Amino acid sequence: MYNITLIPGDGVGPEVTEALLHIIEIMDIELDYTIAYAGDACYKETGTTIPDETLSKSKKADATLFGSVTTVPGHKSAIITLRKELDLYANLRPVKTYPGVNCLFDELDFVIVRENTEGLYSGIEEYTKEGATALRVVTRSASERICRFAFKHAEKTERNKVTAVHKANVLKKTDGVFRESFYKIADEFPNLDTDEKYVDAAAMFLITRPQDFEVIVTTNLFGDILSDEGAGLVGGLGMVPSANIGDNNALFEPVHGSAPDIAGLGISNPSAMVLSAVMMMDYLGESYEARKLENALLDVLREGNVLTPDLGGSSKTMEMAQEIKHKLRIN
After folding, report:
1. Which listed residue (32, 200, 247, 288) is catalytic?
2. Tens-digit pLDDT profile for residues 247-299
3. Any idea of the CA torsion for 296, 298, 303, 305, to the nearest 10 degrees?
4. Catalytic annotation present for 228
5. Taking Cα atoms as reference points, which of 274, 268, 229, 282 lies closest to residue 108?
6. Which of 57, 96, 167, 292 is catalytic?
7. Is 121 designated active site?
8. What's the fold here for domain 104-233?
9. Which fold has domain 1-91+239-331?
10. Which pTM value belongs to this model?
11. Where are the domains of the chain?
12. Annotated catalytic, 200?
């Protein structure tokens, strides 16, 4: 029995969460859900985007599943707060093509490992007479930790190369620390190849030669931007899951936002939420169940008969979920 904190959020978050729960209720894995709240709807009801109770529940859970939330302007981000409070220092975003999905390239399968706790997302900002400044924080300890995670992930997933992405030619001190940390940790993994690219060049090569990448490790802002670019290679944000992993906790979420323009219409793509659950099951050591769930989704995508509008179909979210559940049952 696994204790899972479930944060549906708002926008399309509750819709894709409902779809996932409908699918996995027939699986041979015991999940005990504890509901928690965050986001815009939570703010309107409680006056905070993320209550202390939500943080407490996530800290005690074996894993947290997160739908999506609308960011409240001028207030703390629920997901960034969760990452910081749970010390979820590694953001893992796979970039993978799936059959039946309109992609720019075939047979892509690489992963972006993003440092999740500092950089320009440290939240250290202040107004000045001329406007405002933000402090970019890059420490050796955090840089070494995320680089070691990336190399270990490469070994675990039988990938051969880790690429550091930075801008040390301009950000000589902060990205200089990151680059030095990368090569220091690389010495611990002599069987893996290493590579480095400036972030602007990496952005170009993601479009022109994405097959060259296996594992990318980078700082917070660069990782955020490159991850969304990677999603564009493989069918959009509706197809990309993510994991936020620390030493003691983990949170799994689709990378798409709350999509308020389609919230309530019942047409959101559940694939990224399903794939986030696949990542969660792998994290929990339930790889057999993870592959069953992933293969059921692959069957639906491959056949192309029951797909949401963003995938070229005309089906509703729950209709696609029902089809995934049917594939799961018969496999």
Report:
1. 200
2. 999 999 999 889 888 999 999 999 999 999 999 999 999 999 999 999 999 99
3. 70
4. yes
5. 229
6. 167
7. yes
8. Isopropylmalate Dehydrogenase (3.40.718)
9. Isopropylmalate Dehydrogenase (3.40.718)
10. 0.94
11. 1-91+239-331, 104-233
12. yes
